[in-house]
Write a structure and sequence with these properties.
- With 204 residues, this protein is an alpha+beta fold.
- 37% of the residues lie in helices and 17% in strands.
- A seven-stranded mixed β-sheet has the order 1-2-3-4-5-7-6, sandwiched between helices.
- Helix 6 links the parallel strand 4 and strand 5.
- The protein is globular.
Amino acid sequence: MNTGLRPYRSGDLSRLREICVRTGAAGSDATGRWSSDDLLPDLFLEPYVTASPDWAWVVDEGEGPVGYLVAVPSTRRFVRWWREKWTPWFADRYPEPNEPFSAEEELVHRGRHPEVLEIPELDEYPAHLHIDLLPGFQGRGYGRALIENMLIPALQGAGVPGVHLTMDPANRPARAFYEAVGFVELPSSTPDGPALGRWIPPRR
């Protein structure tokens, strides 16, 4: 049942950026954590809805978004787009840090070098996703519905064989959720950088 779910609209962007920040500390509020609250949505939200707006869905009970899922069907193609279109913009806003990196500088380095998204298992799991729900709307079936009712049918329609994600190891509730909806740990996963994937059965 898709009640409360709908495709992304460009007018949602400001609200989704806010949700990205409010869930950006292992599922908790990251407001004020970094030198700019723009950093997380500039990495984990806006490039996705800019490059692939048709691969974004929101949870909206009638008063605006309270959660979302963004995805790209081809990580390799997305990385090429990022290098050409997003990195120049991102680099203007965030100077290249020098090693050794702080935690914030690690994020900035990621934004300037999108090849970090190319995990070894891309042939089997070419798509990847990010999903965020405000705390008051978690545990109500929306996360599962976003994956099962929106993302998986879209991946099947595009003939994509698998989807993956990487996550903050501190976010244990998210790890439990992903495992409950069929994601398994991938060989490239590490304790500091868990990588999970789900095979997508062909459409019958």
